[in-house]
Structure formats: structure tokens, C-alpha cells
Amino acid sequence: MVGRGFVVDGGLDVGGVLEVLGRERTHRVLWFTVWSAAVATVVSVLLGLPAAYALHRLAFPGRRVVRALLLVPFVLPTVVVGVAFRLLLGEAGPLGGLGLDGTPVAIVAGLVFFNVAVVIRAVGAAWESLDARPGEAAAALGASPAQVFRTVTLPALRPAIVSAASVVFLFCATSYGVVLTLGGLRYSSVETEIYLLTTQLLDLRAAAALSVLQLLAVTALLVVAGRLRAVPDPTLARQLARPRRPRGADGVQVGLTLLVLALVAAPLVTLLVGSLRADDAWSLDNYRALDRVGQGSALLVPASDALVTSLRTAVDATWMSLLLGGLIAVVVSRRSATRGERRLRSTLDGFFMLPLGVSAVTLGFGFLLTLGRPPLALLDSPLVPIAQALVALPLVVRTLVPVLTGLDDRQRQAAASLGAGPLRTFATVDLPAVRRPLIAAAGFAFAVSLGEFGATSFLARSEHPTLPVVIFRLIGSPEPEAFGTALAASVVLAAATAAVVLAVDRLGGRSFGAL
What we know:
Elements: H1 2-6, E1 7-8, E2 11-12, H2 14-21, H3 24-57, H4 63-75, H5 78-89, H6 104-128, H7 133-140, H8 145-173, H9 177-183, H10 190-199, H11 204-229, H12 251-275, E3 277-278, E4 281-282, H13 285-288, H14 303-333, H15 339-351, H16 354-357, H17 360-371, H18 384-406, H19 409-417, H20 422-451, H21 454-459, H22 467-475, H23 480-508
């Protein structure tokens, strides 16, 4: 991408890149990306903070179920969410009278739907670990609950809040499927602009320039987020605080949590109801159509075959990301003997985190440029699992590294002194500690791969599409039955993803908080 953007006829040409960045349309795209991501981040934080408190510091019936349900949107396929919001906000939808369909408000709502779980889990995990004694001391000296929060709790949570907000902004700024399905061609972010420049305008140089600009911005954000995550907090407790029963003053936080749950459930319930309606009657015809080929030119294969392709691809992407992510986690978590070695490990850790923020569209575009011509003309090979494995790789690394870093190195030294080799030491010391987080990492990788759309939309072959690609094609089909089939396919894909995530949340415990 750097070569396409900056090198022309073997020489450096910065002027061409500046020309692309100086276009009026580029300015509009950049401004829309920045302000929509910023607004979505602020709303996600405002909704996520009270929910994080209620779900991690209070004990009430159904708390674990609500926590698990609010995690589901984080890994739902973007195409599914786009379809659900279009159905909710469309003219015939429950909220159609608000006139929000196809507006920036709908896009921001979709971004908040995805990312409020990041704030809840990241800040909630930090809130659970806070030492309660400073707050109790302040209350004993006459401070009101609001003063305790403002002067004691909020400063202690600030690193976690800022870190979560920076990651949410990064996710919002690199969102692709939500903007594409909810904004169409009227509103473009950097993501959708790269896709438009590549597939329709064939302006690879402009696409490369935007990709490089995005890469630099994401790198800077990841560096900031990494430093904030590493800030030591003197108020951390030695053990997790036990949740207490809600009091009268906690009613607002519990109420806001239930509001967040309702906002998350509304588009999904609307999607389910819409999939069960055909010709203004309750019917399973939309689900029966999943086995048929047709709907204009949208379906070259049945949607059921596309689901099988998605499952097989997700399995391959999962074992690839686990293998590579496990090796990376082992390398970067080992104690460093010198300052140079420590810097090298930190650099490697940051480098492999780039896919967390670099968009899947940029990744797919990079595959297209690199492997589309000799000597690496591999586009006829099944590249989708490799691309999806790279998308899931940071989730695996971020889940495993904190666990491996927290292991006492003296245990490894004791095993080695008793004659155990490196592999036996790893099997007896590291592997038992990392077993549950490894299950969580596998589940998250599988769920993310199952719904991945950005890179797949570049690389999937027409005869072997994944289900998210088929859903997007169905949305754009002129056939009247196509949209109903898209709803049914979206429900199937969302159900499969949700089942995986709920199982991971039960088996992996707090592993998500490490992200």
C-alpha cells in the first residue's frame, strides 16, 4: 500500500498523496469519520459507565445473564446489525416514524450498539479491582456519594475509562459494515471510501493513500491506549470486591443498565420478528428460502451452503490465530534480561496488535495488492481464512498475554532445575494456567471470523461466499423475496455467533476484560 501510494515509476512522489488528501471529498470523508466516531464514543462511555457499575459492583437477580447478553453485540456480524437497524428504523419499522433511516443518527446508533460492551467490560473489570477503603474513608469524613465518585473513584478509574474510550474510538473510526449498510453511498467513512475507490472507481492510489493515513492514525492510537493500559493504579485491591445488594441510591444505575439492555435488544427482536413475517403473515418461508438459489443475481449458491462455508472458514481461521497468537503471547510475555530485549518484545506486541485497529477493509485491500500479481499471484487460493485469522489475532494475543505475564517465573525455573525441558516446562506450568483463557480466545476468534465481512468482501470467491457476503448481496437484490431471506440468514448467523459468545463468557470468565 505504501508503494502504491507514494512510489510512481520507481521514485518517491509525495505530491500525489497530498493531492488525494487535499480533495474536497476526502475532507468530507475524514470529517464524517472523526465526528461520528467521537460522538459514538462519548455516548458509549456515558451509557457504559453506569452499566459497568451495576453489573460489576452490585448483586441482583439475572446479573450474569445481563452481562453475557450485553457482550453479544461486540462480536455480532456488522452486516447483521446493519440489517437489524434498517428494519427497526425503516418506514415500516417500529421506529420508522422518527425518520432516522439512512441518517447519521442511525450510523451512530449502530456504532454505539457495537461498542458499549467494550466500555462495560473494560471499565467494569477495573471497577471490580478497586480498593473500597479510600471511598469508605471519604464517606466517613462526610463526603456525599457524588463527592466520593468525583474525588476518589473517578480518578482511580480514569486510566481504564480513557483506554476504553480510545479503543472504542478506534473501532468506530474503522467500522465498515455499519456505515456501508446504514449510510449507503450518501455517507462515507474512510473505510467505505477505500472500498469505493478500489472496487468501483479503480483509483488504487487514492485508496492506498487513505489506507496509509489510517494506518498511521491507528498506530498512534494503539500506542496511547497501550501506555494508558500500563499505568499502575495504586488503588487496586488485592482481591476482587464482592458485589453488594442495590440500595435506594443505586436505582438510577440499575435503571440505566436495563435501558442499555433494551436498546441492545430492540434491533435484534425486530430482526427476529421480521424474519418470521412473509406476505403480512406469520411464516417460515424466509427460512425455507435459505436452501434455494435465486433472488436475482444475489445467490449463486444456497445461503445454507454459505453458512457451511462460513463455519469451515471460521474453524480454519481459529486454529491459525490460536497457533500464531499463542506463539506470540509466549514470546512477548517472557521476562526480558536487558532493556533492548524489553523494547523488542514491546515492539512485537504492538506490531501484532495493529489488526485490532487497522480495518479489515485495509487488510483485504493489502491482500489484493500484494497477492494479485506475480510473483505471489495467489488470489485463486483460499485466502479468506488467513485474512480472518489476522483479524482475530489481536484478540487471542490480548487474552493470553496477561495470564502468561502474571505467572511466577520461579515456577518455570523450579521445573527446569528438576530436569524438565522447555516443552515439558510449558506443558506443566504455563498450559494449566492458560487453559480457560485459551478456550475464551478460541471462542472469540471463531465468533469474529464467523461474522467477518470487511476483508472477506474483497477476497471471497463468488462460488464460495461466506454468509455475511451473501446477506449483503441479498440486501441489494431487486427481488422482493431477497430481503426476507436476508433477515432469516441474519438471524441464523446472529444465533450462531451469540451461542459461541455466551459459551465463551461462561467458560472464559474475565478474559474479555483483558482486551
